[in-house]
């Protein structure tokens, strides 16, 4: 048995948690019930531990979880107080359930810590919002929850504490260090080292695996850097930039043009970026000082100066491509370093005195205070198109309806109905239906056993002794065995608890089955009528909107660079669309789906590449200086933007985007523009990369991405 548990739970995280929650719940319950003699405080001591220890998923180390528990204690007091006061009538309790149910769930957009607390906080209102209406018992109830939280925080630190999880910054450090090794090998290859190319081919797959480990689908939700604060935003930005840099390394592998006129300057830039990236990885691991943005900025300046001193007139565009790719690599390296410095708490230096609220760009959040960032996240998701808004409204409606029905039917244990909704309601109707059978079968099986125990008329001391054993098994059964076992054992736990608080008979088990069945019916019906497709339906719309916004970014960028048009709000709209698309993708990953026909991660990369590339170009290239080739650039941009629009249209129709058509024959480009030829090369490299991104959307199903296909090409080339 122990070997089986270790195979299912290698680090014993589930077992440790079950032991801690059981110890706290039983200690608080027995202390209040048998020592203090308070029948009002005892259930709150027990269910407070269950709510914040079993139903909640709090990320971080034991110390961080303990601090979080203490910090949310005032919120728990407020929820229990409101539930106690609003239980004066069914309508008041249901209205409070709807408002608080929505608010508690919706604030989860602020980050994984808030998401993990949502279910437990819901229970803290559900428990007191049922009759009897007894405001006089409020002090005892608050004392019970206070005891539970303090004991739980102490247990996190002292009772078989969990090993500290691997910090996200360490995962990022592994990916960044592997990327630095690839950059160094590429620089050696360009410098004539015959082993550089083979080393790069061997290193890129390893770097790809490290980059894949940063993907949200490969991380538990509570470990993702998804909060609204600067630190997590910056780490997420750094991870996305690292993936883009790795893709650029592969591009440069195939673009090692021995005749490129800026080859020597590109090698110097590449070695500097490799050093900066390596220093970034060392700092993330805690092995070095914070990387310096000025180093890569100076290298970019030197590279631009070298290009300025080299006349490109009369040269074919192919001889300028290597420099364009190297320059984009340098710009993205600078972005990576800036993001890591922001994560360390240092805001970026802004070149002009514009007000903080007017400073645009990728790092706009670095200039705002943490409360303003959380408010911004709440405000941008307060739309029916946000999956967070949809999920919060769905759950709030289900809980409020269930509270009204339980009150109308005068159910003696109506909170079981709402607890069932928290258990079975999922983000899609199909997911909700899949939970019904195990939940109902487990509840019936547990109720039969509970009824037999009550019919036997066992001594209450037997119930007190059996409670911790059954509770440990129940809390561990869900993650290890599934929902059915969890429901069966939790039914026994409830029976053992109530048998020690009030006189009960075998009909308690009958009431449990009826309440769970009622909660399941309400959950299914609400899930069927309120956004029944869950993340899958919204993901098509959100990614389609993102790609359509990216198409506008492409057109606007070329208009600004070629003929000096005034920048519009295409970049701002695309950033917002990208945030909603990322949120939809995160929800989609939490659901069960058949194998996807397209790579959702590559789809998002295609949009982000358009946005980040445009930001770098607008920031670094002169506007309006390419009038002699405005027609050629506009035609090329329109072709790429049209491909984005076509993919967006198919996504909006819930269809798989088609592979983009073959690249049209290149137009004849002027070769007498002087230094502007370098700007043209930069724009063409960006547009060519975007077209390749679209081709990778249908290259492999999720969870593969565009890098795997290109890495395979690297390995094939090495052999």
Features:
single chain, 27 helices, 719 residues, 0% strand, mainly alpha
Taken from the alpha-carbon principal axes, the silhouette is elongated
State the end-to-end CA separation: 48 Å
Roughly what is the average pLDDT, rounded to an integer? 84
> What series of H and E elements makes up the topology?
HHHHHHHHHHHHHHHHHHHHHHHHHHH
Structural class: mainly alpha
- The number of distinct β-strands equals 0
Biggest sheet record: none
Number of helices: 27
Rg, Å, rounded: 29 Å
User: Considering DSSP H and I runs of 4 or more, what fraction of the residues is helical?
Assistant: over 70%
Share of residues in strands: under 5%
> Low-confidence parts, pLDDT < 50 over ≥5 residues?
351-359, 700-708, 713-719
Secondary structure layout plus pairing:
Elements: H1 2-8, H2 13-36, H3 41-55, H4 62-71, H5 73-86, H6 90-106, H7 112-126, H8 138-158, H9 168-190, H10 194-212, H11 230-253, H12 263-285, H13 293-308, H14 318-343, H15 370-380, H16 387-408, H17 415-424, H18 429-456, H19 460-481, H20 483-501, H21 507-529, H22 534-563, H23 570-589, H24 600-620, H25 630-652, H26 676-695, H27 706-718
Pfam families: FUSC_2 (PF13515)
Keywords: Cell membrane, Membrane, Transmembrane, Transmembrane helix
Domain Integral membrane bound transporter: 404-526
């Amino acid at each position: 048995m122990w070997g089986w548990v270790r195979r299912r739970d290698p680090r014993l995280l589930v077992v440790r948690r079950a032991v801690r929650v059981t110890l706290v719940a039983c200690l608080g319950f027995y202390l209040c019930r048998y020592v203090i003699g308070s029948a009002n405080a005892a259930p709150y001591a027990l269910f407070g531990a269950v709510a914040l220890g079993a139903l909640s998923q709090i990320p971080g180390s034991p110390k961080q979880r303990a601090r979080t528990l203490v910090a949310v204690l005032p919120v728990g007091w407020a929820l229990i107080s409101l539930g106690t006061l609003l239980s004066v009538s069914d309508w008041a309790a249901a209205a409070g359930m709807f408002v608080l149910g929505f608010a508690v769930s919706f604030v989860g957009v602020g980050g994984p810590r808030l998401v993990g607390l949502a279910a437990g906080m819901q229970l803290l209102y559900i428990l007191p919002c049922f009759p009897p209406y007894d405001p006089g018992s409020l002090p005892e109830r608050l004392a019970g929850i206070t005891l539970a939280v303090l004991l739980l925080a102490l247990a996190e630190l002292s009772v078989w504490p969990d090993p500290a999880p691997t910090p996200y910054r360490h995962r990022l450090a592994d990916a960044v260090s592997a990327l630095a090794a690839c950059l160094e090998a590429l620089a050696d290859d360009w410098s004539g080292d015959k082993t550089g190319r083979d080393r790069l081919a061997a290193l890129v797959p390893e770097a790809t695996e490290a980059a894949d480990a940063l993907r949200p689908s490969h991380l538990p939700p509570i470990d993702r850097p998804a909060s609204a604060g600067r630190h997590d935003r910056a780490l997420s930005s750094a991870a996305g930039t690292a993936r883009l840099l790795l893709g650029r390394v592969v591009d440069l592998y195939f673009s090692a043009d021995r005749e490129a006129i800026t080859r020597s300057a590109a090698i110097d830039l590449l070695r500097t970026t490799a050093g900066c990236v390596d220093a970034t990885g060392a700092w993330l691991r805690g092995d070095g000082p914070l990387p310096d943005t000025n180093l890569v900025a100076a290298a970019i300046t030197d590279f631009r100066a070298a290009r300025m001193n080299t006349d490109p007139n009369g040269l074919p565009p192919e001889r300028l491509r290597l420099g364009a790719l190297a320059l984009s690599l340098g710009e993205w390296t600078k972005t990576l370093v800036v993001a890591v410095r922001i994560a360390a708490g240092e805001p970026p230096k802004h070149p002009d005195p514009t007000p903080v609220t007017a400073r645009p760009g990728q790092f706009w959040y670095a200039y705002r205070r943490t409360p303003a960032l959380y408010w911004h996240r709440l405000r941008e998701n307060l739309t029916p198109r946000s999956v967070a808004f949809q999920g919060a409204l769905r759950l709030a409606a289900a809980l409020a309806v269930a509270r009204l029905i339980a009150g109308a039917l005068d159910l003696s244990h109506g909170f079981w109905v709402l607890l069932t909704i928290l258990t079975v309601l999922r983000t899609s109707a199909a997911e909700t239906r899949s939970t019904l059978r195990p939940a109902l079968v487990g509840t019936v099986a547990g109720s039969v056993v509970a009824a037999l125990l009550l019919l036997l008329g066992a001594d209450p001391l037997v119930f007190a002794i059996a409670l911790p054993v059954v509770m440990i098994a129940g809390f561990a059964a869900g993650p290890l065995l599934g929902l059915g076992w969890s429901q069966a054992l939790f039914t026994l736990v409830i029976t053992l608890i109530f048998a020690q608080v009030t006189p009960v008979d075998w009909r308690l088990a009958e009431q449990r089955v009826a309440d769970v069945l009622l909660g399941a019916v309400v959950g299914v019906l609400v899930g069927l009528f309120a956004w029944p497709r869950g993340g899958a339906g919204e993901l098509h719309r959100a990614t389609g909107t993102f790609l359509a916004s990216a198409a506008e970014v492409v057109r606007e960028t070329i208009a600004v660079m070629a003929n000096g048009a005034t920048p519009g709000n295409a970049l701002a709209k695309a950033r917002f669309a990208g945030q909603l698309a990322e949120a939809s993708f995160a929800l989609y990953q939490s659901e069960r789906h058949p194998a996807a026909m397209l790579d959702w991660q590559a789809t998002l990369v295609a949009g982000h590449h358009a946005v980040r590339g445009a930001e770098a170009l607008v920031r670094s290239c002169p506007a309006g200086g390419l009038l002699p080739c405005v027609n050629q650039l506009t035609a090329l941009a329109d072709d790429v933007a049209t491909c984005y629009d076509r993919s967006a249209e198919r996504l909006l129709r819930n269809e798989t985007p088609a592979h983009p058509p073959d690249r049209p024959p290149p137009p004849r480009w002027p070769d007498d523009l002087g230094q502007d030829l370098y700007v043209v090369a930069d724009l063409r490299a960006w547009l060519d990369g975007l077209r390749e991104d679209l081709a990778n959307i249908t290259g492999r199903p999720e969870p593969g991405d565009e890098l795997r296909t290109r890495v395979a090409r690297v390995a094939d080339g090495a052999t």
